[in-house]
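pinned: reference chain
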Amino acid sequence: MYDEETADDVRSQLLNGDGVLVWVDPIANGKNRLALDDLLRSVAQQGAWVSAHPDTILKMGTKQVLYDTKHLGWGTDVRLYRTITAFREQFPACLRSSGPRVLKQYRGNGGNGVWKIELLALASAGTETVRVLHALRGSTPEDLSLDRFLARCETYFAGDGIIIDQPYQARLPDGMIRCYVAADKVVGFGHQLIKALIPPPPEGPDAPQAQPGPRIMHGPDAVAFQGLREKMESEWIPQMMQTLDIEPCLLPIIWDADFLYGPRDSSGADTYVLCEINVSSVFPIPDEAPVEIAKLAKKRLQAA
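pinned: its structure tokens
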């Protein structure tokens, strides 16, 4: 277990190890990973193998990866706003022209700082009415002025904060596919009927039908997901590594990529849209994954 108050003791323990596997949420209970990441960089510099390394997390484990890799086959019309001024100037026009959007803060988990926003009434600039829905469990739709919502988002630009802007995917009710990966090999899948960004029923957000379904785990050979596996291993992961300048030895020992179903192609086959990449804290994992993780850990330690 880690806490800033015990950081010195944690450092001493880690320096006695050959490798460190780390699963810690980026934001939890008002705290973040800044102090922990500095500690892990120090441990890595002194020879220990660290996975996931904080620098790798910053490349592929924040929402910015959606923008940096939007040209890959998993990408869509993703936009990035670095300042509240740019957000105020550019986002309204995007919303008016392209339909419902999904906004995401730079780092977060559990749906925190992820919003669906759609235009309800177009009046004059600054007076439009929008409907927004937070991805946090228990949220309900809220109608308010666009200007008021833009002001609410100002907090997301604190520090090195940014906002990522994606098109809303109409097939969201078909569920999310979590693709579990050990370095560059797919080791399993999880399919879940999620409820985030889907308006709750009239009974309210606490009703049974408003709760997400269980994540159904599958091994890497699951027939339904072989198309996605082939894309990941032969195209998208190598292209991501090249785009983000990630060496093979620095790929996390376990990470996952969440996909939503995109529009079907001309032959009726599924397409996939990247929703996010999770690197900081990845559990649960399919039953088939631990053996592959252990093999990879042994290989990494021997190389180190």
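why pinned: The chain has three domains: 4-51, 58-76+171-303, 79-167. The chain is about 30% helix and 25% strand.
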